[in-house]
C-alpha cells in the first residue's frame, strides 16, 4: 500500500504520461502510476546504489520492466531533453529539489508539469519556480504518521499576480495553502513558531555578531508573518 503522501503526488500525474521520478528509492511511485494506467511509462532515477538496486528489483517483481526504465545517476542527468512530460521529485528537502531542477534546467525541455514534494523548505522551491517561468498551479498539505508534507504542482507560464499583495508571506506559506489554512497547515506552522521562538531564545544568550543579528531579524520577520496568519 502506497503512502497517502505518494498517492497525493500520483494524483497530479496525468494518466498516460511519461514520468521521470527522480530519487525514486524503491520505485513505488512509478510502479503505482503504471499499474493505475496502462498508457503510463516511467523512468526511475536514483543516485545511490542501494536504492537503485531496490528500484530495479521492485520494477522486475511488479512485472513492469517493459514500461519503467530504472537509471542510475544524479538528478536530471538520467533523462534526455524531451523524454519526459512530467517530473516528480518527492521526499527530499526543498533546497535539494531546487538544486536538482537548477542543475538539470536544460533537461526540462518538453516537460509540462512538475510535481514536487519537499519535506522542508517549500519556500525555496516556490521562489525558484517563480524566477524560472514555472507557475504554481496547485498545492496540497497533508499529515501522515505525525509528519506534515507539502506538495507543489507547477506548469509552464507566468504566475500572473499569484503572489501579488504580499510576496514574502505567500512564498513562505504557499498562495493556495494560505487560502485554505487546513488542519495540517495550522499544525505545521504552530510547530514552526514554537521552534523559531526557541531558537531566538537560545540566540539571545549567544555573543552578538552582525551575522547573528541578521539571522534574528529574519527569524523575527517570519514569526511576525506566521503569527499574523
Ligand atoms: N521519492 C521517494 C519517496 O518520496 O518516498 C524516496 C525518497 S528518499 C527519502 C530520497 C531518495 O532520493 C533516496 O533514495 C536518495 O538516494 C535519492 N537521491 C538523493 N539525492 C539525489 C539526486 N541528486 N539524484 C537522484 N536521487 C537522489
Give a brief outline of the structure.
The protein is 45% helix and 22% strand.
> Could you report the average pLDDT, rounded to the nearest whole number?
96
How far apart the termini lie comes to 36 Å
CATH topology of the largest domain: Rossmann fold
Q: Which architecture of the largest domain per CATH?
A: 3-Layer(aba) Sandwich
Total domain count = 2
Q: C-alpha Rg, in Å? A: 19 Å
Number of strands: 7
CATH superfamily of the largest domain: Vaccinia Virus protein VP39
- Give the overall shape, derived from the CA principal axes: elongated
CATH top level label of the largest domain: Alpha Beta
Could you tell me the strand content as a percent range?
15-25%
Question: What does the model show?
Answer:
This protein is of the alpha/beta class. It folds into two domains: 4-159, Rossmann fold, CATH 3.40.50; 186-228. 45% of the residues lie in helices and 22% in strands. It has helices at 4-11, 28-36, 49-61, 94-103, 122-131, 167-173, 175-180, 183-204, 210-228, and strands at 18-22, 41-46, 68-72, 86-92, 113-118, 134-144, 147-156. It has a seven-stranded mixed sheet with strand order 3-2-1-4-5-7-6, with helices on both faces. β6 (134-144) and β7 (147-156) form a beta hairpin. It is elongated and about 60 Å long. This is tRNA (Adenine(22)-N(1))-methyltransferase TrmK. GO terms for molecular function: tRNA (adenine(22)-N1)-methyltransferase activity.
